[in-house]
Design brief:
11 strands; mainly alpha; globular
């Protein structure tokens, strides 16, 4: 089936080939596409929109680098290459304005905004003989969506920490038209309030123009539902809970989305663009090019897959595994392990006193911190958790490779058993596809990457309901997510109890969001939006009021004399 994932790679080629036409060769600057020549057909206009999609899924942004930032700064992942200084800086909150990833993401996002502006301006000006009004609306609607999408990512990464509720604080540069000069590009940062207003306006414009769904040849393009969902999550960042509820009500009323039965199928290329997916990055392996140089497969799997399949350049942290644990049982085998005995003698003696008992993860953690302080606890996470036995949330098996997992189930290829003693990321890695392409090493991976799932919409809706006093309804929507997760589980009841207080529901959401969305670049945004990043990250160096945002890249400061740096960088 020819879908958008097959089209996107062709876009740079189409744009290049447009320069081979006779008229194009006669323009005064052969390095630029003449607008009068290029914006003359629906085909060219579509290729310009496709170029934006292609760009956001490249390794410099959502194809890899944003994951290096979001999953490591949140503490979900660890164990990157020691030489990968950019990631180390995120993990230790020592990010400098020269950070390579910081610059690549900033640069790529503004490139996509410029491309969106091109489409909004020039497609809107195309006459009816060149393009139908319906096609024009759909193309311009996608450009509005993608511009708002990029602006939202920029604001979440670089705009002032909104929970302080100072809408006059520094937001992001707002570039909403095609620049007519180099000087026009050197704009100042708008306020946080102005930035959010522009983002919401872009999503609302997109909603007016976009279809509710596309035919099969265009699966993956932004839809009316995607525009509504991203507007809703923007309202959540503004603590505009009534508006978020209204937006999510509108999304659900479309009747197009439902949770699929199997949580794990969302992530491994087996059921892409399914009924749960609201917006999803499209990947395919039809190109022979490596993703790093313009191929259409994704780079995330190559970088994060276990070493039998990829570079193995990430681990799922023991801190993360602890938040997925439902209970621990202190066994003799665990106590006899040499790794376990590597913890301090007094800590080992305390854990030994629990032999034969089943304890709650929260109780064990709190007792260890209270008796031995947080620094000692953090320093000994490996001996504490490496071999501990217990039960885990059913979603854990779809989130991380654990010892004994089968990496490749396709009988035509070698079956690799995951034997490493620590955990590795599993989401967005189609291990069968790795082996199919390469016999198990550094293979192209075509798994799509869902960016916004209905499960997240349900959890944000529950949060907004809770914040507006509708606690019973909030619990119902959390339980929709939990019911799917615990389907067939015979352990403890999956239902959250009725009658919970507002604060108890907030605490439940902190944990539920983590378990449902771990590895999907949501955790860090949640911690910042809730104002609780210090609760989870202070032991790694996080300082409230500084590290919620990244520094403006030095390269940008050097280029733009009007750009202001974020405070304390």
């Amino acid at each position: 089936m020819k879908t958008i994932k097959n089209i996107l790679l062709l876009t740079p080629i189409l744009l290049f080939l447009s320069g081979c036409e006779k008229d194009f060769l006669e323009i005064s600057d052969p390095n630029n596409i003449d607008n009068a020549v290029f914006w003359t057909s629906e085909k060219n206009a579509t290729s310009a929109v496709n170029a934006i999609y292609s760009s956001i899924k490249e390794p410099g942004f959502l194809g890899l680098d944003y994951h290096k930032y979001a999953s490591f700064i949140s503490g979900e992942y660890d164990r990157c290459y020691p030489s990968d200084q950019s990631r180390v800086e995120f993990m230790t909150f020592t990010v400098k304005s020269e950070n390579k990833i910081d610059w690549l993401i900033w640069k790529d996002l503004f490139r996509d905004i410029m491309r969106s502006n091109d489409v909004i301006t020039h497609v809107s000006e195309m006459n009816d003989e060149l393009i139908s009004q319906e096609a024009k609306d759909q193309l311009v609607g996608q450009a509005y969506f993608l511009r708002g999408f990029c602006e939202l990512y920029l604001l979440q990464m670089y705009g002032a920490y909104y929970p302080e509720k100072d809408t006059s604080a520094l937001g992001i540069p707002l570039i909403t038209r095609v620049a007519q000069s180099r000087e026009e590009m050197f704009c100042k940062r708008a306020s946080v309030g102005e930035s959010y207003k522009q983002i919401i306006a872009d999503f609302e414009e997109a909603e007016k123009r976009l279809p509710s769904k596309w035919d099969n040849t265009n699966l993956g393009r932004a839809t009316k539902g995607a525009a509504i969902a991203y507007a809703a999550t923007t309202h959540m960042w503004l603590n505009q809970f009534d508006k978020a509820i209204a937006s999510y009500d509108k999304l659900f009323a479309l009747g197009l989305y439902s949770l699929i039965d199997d949580f794990s199928v969302n992530f491994h290329g087996k059921n892409e663009n399914n009924s749960e997916s609201i917006f999803e990055l499209q990947y395919a392996d039809f190109s022979s090019l490596n993703p790093w140089v313009g191929g259409s497969a994704q780079s995330l799997a190559l970088e994060f897959a276990p070493s039998q399949l990829g570079r193995g350049n990430a681990g799922v942290s023991y801190e993360t595994s602890d938040y997925f644990a439902l209970s621990y049982t202190i066994t003799q085998a665990y106590l006899d392990n040499s790794d376990t005995k590597g913890m301090p003698n007094d800590m080992y003696a305390y854990i030994s006193s629990l032999k034969g008992k089943t304890v709650s993860p929260e109780e064990l953690k709190n007792n260890l911190i209270s008796q031995f302080d947080v620094t000692t606890y953090v320093a000994n996470m490996t001996p504490i958790y490496k071999w501990i036995e217990g039960t885990w949330d059913p979603r854990w098996k779809a989130t991380a490779f654990i010892q004994g997992d089968t990496l490749v189930s396709n009988e035509k290829w070698t079956i690799y058993s995951y034997s490493t003693s620590f955990y590795s990321p599993k989401k967005f890695i189609d291990s069968d596809r790795h082996a199919l392409n390469t016999g198990g090493t550094l293979g192209a991976n075509e798994s799509n990457i869902p960016l916004f799932r209905l499960a997240y919409a349900y959890l944000q809706y529950a949060e907004a309901l809770n914040e507006t006093g509708k606690t019973t309804e909030a619990v119902d929507y959390i339980n929709k997510v939990r019911e799917r997760a615990y389907k067939g589980y015979t352990g403890q009841s999956w239902k959250l109890a009725s009658g919970l207080s507002k604060e108890q529901i907030k605490a439940a959401l902190e944990l539920e969001n983590f378990r449902e969305l771990c590895g999907e670049c949501v955790r860090w945004k949640d911690l910042v939006r809730w104002g609780v990043a210090d609760k989870y990250c202070s032991y790694r160096g996080f300082e409230k009021g500084t590290h919620e945002v990244l520094p403006i890249p030095k390269a940008e400061l050097d280029l733009n004399p009007n750009m202001e740096q974020n405070e304390n960088y």
